[in-house]
Amino acid sequence: MKRPPRIGIALGSGSARGWAHIGVLRALAREGIEPQIISGCSIGAFVGAVAASGDLGKLGTWVEALGWQDVVGLMDMGLRGGLIKGDKLISFFERNFVDRDFTTLPHLFGCVATDLQSGHEVWLREGSVSAAVRASIALPGLMTPSWQDGRLLVDGGLVNPVPVSLARAMGADMVIAVDLNSDVVGAAWRNRAEASPPDPSSGWSAKLLARFGRNGKPVADASEDTPESLPSMLTVMQSSISIMSVRIARSRLAGEPADVLISPRLAQLGLMDYHRGAEAIAEGEAAVELALPTIRRALRHL
Q1: Would you tell me how many other CB atoms lie within 10 Å of the CB of residue 197?
Q2: Planar angle of CA 8, 9, 13, nearest 5 degrees
Q3: Is this model's pTM higher than 0.90 or not?
Q4: Active-site position among 13, 15, 39, 42
Q5: pLDDT confidence of 131, banded at 50, 70, 90?
Q6: Which of 155, 179, 259, 273 is catalytic?
Q7: Beta bridge partners of 175
Q8: What is the 3-state secondary structure (H, E, C) of 51-106?
Q9: pLDDT at 192 over 60
Q10: What CA–CA distance (Å, rounded) separates 258 from 176?
Q11: 155 catalytically annotated
Q12: Dihedral, CA atoms, 196, 202, 204, 207, nearest 10 degrees?
């Protein structure tokens, strides 16, 4: 007998914008669409792993209640390889969401990382789910790389920001892709004056404020508030990562197109705006509503 068609979803990279994936999956579920295959990159791997384990509702509740101080509390400063070691985040992830082997997940799941030494794309589909997610989210400069099987792995967004190819390889007959970065190039510059300040009562945020100031500018440059002033390191990093992600995603999606492409409007969110989860989730849900006619047409052709 011919097997029923399998729907896959490719959840792209985008740091804090990735909470929009929760909204996308929620809206699809309301339409009776539940992907059997989930591939993810970076924050897409984080959300995808939780969704594949059946805990998306729990994650959504946590994200919507997440405040800036909670975000800061999950950061552990590192001095080598990245600003954040990532141990506290992954420990929290394992305790509250996913600490299991790939083979025990209710849905097929895989995620993408990058071999820092060879530049090769790495598909992670075996062993510890949390270890795979840790490698996929290791954004260079921000989070320290992860050693696995003799390879030094970093964020998969360097090579495959929206992993449609992985979903196809896992057996998806139809792939819905979620691109978080379609409208973000230049957004860091537009949003500098409007950025939400961190809570100064926190130790980590106090350090960030001491280093960068409330407007994202180094304190040493605070008096040079002119159009010619150099932007902060965070603004430069955010803009550079956005440009890289958009260019790579466009190239990969052109060669490996999805059946449906969902692009939430997330330019107003910065890389570290994890405390604005409710806003990101709402944008994900709105993007699905716009894409529903295309999704329904694609489903009819399965």
Answers
A1: 13
A2: 150
A3: no
A4: 42
A5: very high
A6: 155
A7: 8
A8: HHHCCHHHHHHHHHCCCHHHHHHCCCECCCCEEECCHHHHHHHHHHCCCCEHHHCC
A9: no
A10: 6
A11: yes
A12: 80
